[in-house]
Design a protein that fits this description.
The chain has 137 residues and is of the alpha+beta class. It is 27% helix and 45% strand.
């Protein structure tokens, strides 16, 4: 079934897909190989919920992520969509949903799902909310 909507809507979906894919590549490369620079991807008030455990604020988020064992992520699914202005007034935002497999040092490979709410700040996508969950199959 073809997507119906105005050219503007289709263009914004295409832009969200392009930005989301680029972001996902940067995020997982950084998480797996350059975790020490993750702070550049988050805001001062970002929230991370990792398997039901929440932390908020740049310093607690980065401390938590850096405390995780070394990782290797492989994405199997990526979906992106623009967030309507009514949901984030005055901000350009996109929702990025990923699924894949992750291997943390000392642990078995596991399936995961991760959702990011991104907002554009000075021409750069920043993570406002990051929700990670292992998936049992």
């Amino acid at each position: 079934m073809a997507l119906r909507g105005s050219a503007t809507t289709v263009a914004s979906i295409d832009q969200a897909n392009s930005a989301g894919e680029e972001f996902a590549n940067i995020f997982y490369e950084t998480m797996d190989k350059r975790r020490h620079v993750l702070a550049h991807l988050y805001t001062e008030t970002s929230t991370v919920v990792w398997n039901g455990n929440a932390c908020r604020g740049l310093e607690p988020v980065i401390n938590f992520l850096q405390s995780l064992p070394s990782s290797s992520h492989t994405l199997t699914s990526l979906d992106c969509q623009p967030v309507p202005d009514a949901a984030s007034p005055g901000q350009t935002s996109i929702l990025v949903v990923t699924e894949g497999r992750v291997k943390y040092d000392g642990h078995e490979d596991e399936n995961f799902s991760q959702n990011f709410l991104l907002t554009e700040q000075s021409g750069v996508w920043k993570i406002v909310s990051d929700c990670f969950r292992f998936i049992d199959v």
